[in-house]
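tl;dr need the bound structure. longer version: we got a ligand (cytidine-5'-triphosphate) that a collaborator sent over and nobodys looked at where it sits. i said id run it. heres the input, straight from their email, havent touched it
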Amino acid sequence: PKKKKKTVRVYMDGCFDLMHYGHANALRQARALGDELVVGVVSDEEIIANKGPPVMSMDERMVMVSSVKWVDKVIADAPYAITEEFMNKLFTEYNIDYIIHGDDPCILPDGSDAYAHAKKAGRYKQIKRTEGVSSTDIVGRMLLCVRDRQILETPNHASLQRQFSHGSTPGQDNGNASGTRISHFLPTSRRIVQFSNGKGPRPDARIVYMDGAFDLFHAGHVEILKCARDYGDFLLVGIHTDQTVSAHRGPHHPIMSLHERSLSVLACRYVDEVIIGAPSEVTKDMIKTFNISLVLHGTVQESEGVRNKRNEKKAESEKKYYATKQFVTGD
Ligand code: CTP
């Protein structure tokens, strides 16, 4: 009889702060190096000690990593560096074969390599870091957008509006003269294929549709999508164009471009397919073309009261995200 092949388990760790499609792409590549992917999410304390305070809490970072479709298991409060002790724990307790990290140097405050032990043990593998995106870059885009809002209060509104709504002028790149929001991301068809499930709905599937901007994809979005997926067998998500988002939220939005937003949504395990550039109104034509049975609307209900720094945590926990039925077709 044929000997059963051993399951290869790989481990990737990280902060996964302000989770973006670069992180998702790292997890995708790590998963491809084995059969099962275990992810260690670095604790708040360890991030503070090694990089400075994270933007997102441990809980939020856990939700984001767990939502990625290539992740099989998540470990909370992982250490920043792979110590010999922790590495042995990975081998014995979690049956890990390889420890994976992006090809960027990961240097500890004392100048040593965070993966030195794994490398020495011959249990280290590397994946290619995704160009054009990082948490720092996203924070930068958000800060520039605050500055831009002030500039936009000056009279020459129309020309600025044109300048800040990226992607709307053909033949121009996503940046502008003042250097605002330059996305270096070049979407290729191959990347979209890598992120796709590659499967359409079964003929008898109940197809649920939800659309939105999904800018700066966060734990609330994940919750809404999970809820939406439970209404049917196939969740189709419409991602609004940059122009639609700008028209609704102002010229400094979205922070992430259409293709960046599409990849983040595609990486989510509750999503079956996305429409890259959906109209803001669901048309009869779309319902027919995609055989949609139910259109859902995501709602964010925020608690009343002033959100000052002190009650911010409380307000966050009272924030409810849910999907409500907008309309049902056919049945
Ligand atoms: N990663 C990647 N491509 C990026 C960003 C991160 O492949 N654009 C990988 C890292 O190499 C690492 C994993 O994602 O293996 C988790 O990264 P993380 O610890 O969150 O930190 P950073 O590398 O600092 O990511 P960022 O700069 O975006 O915070």
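gonna send this back to them w/ a short note. The chain has two domains: 9-127, 186-328.
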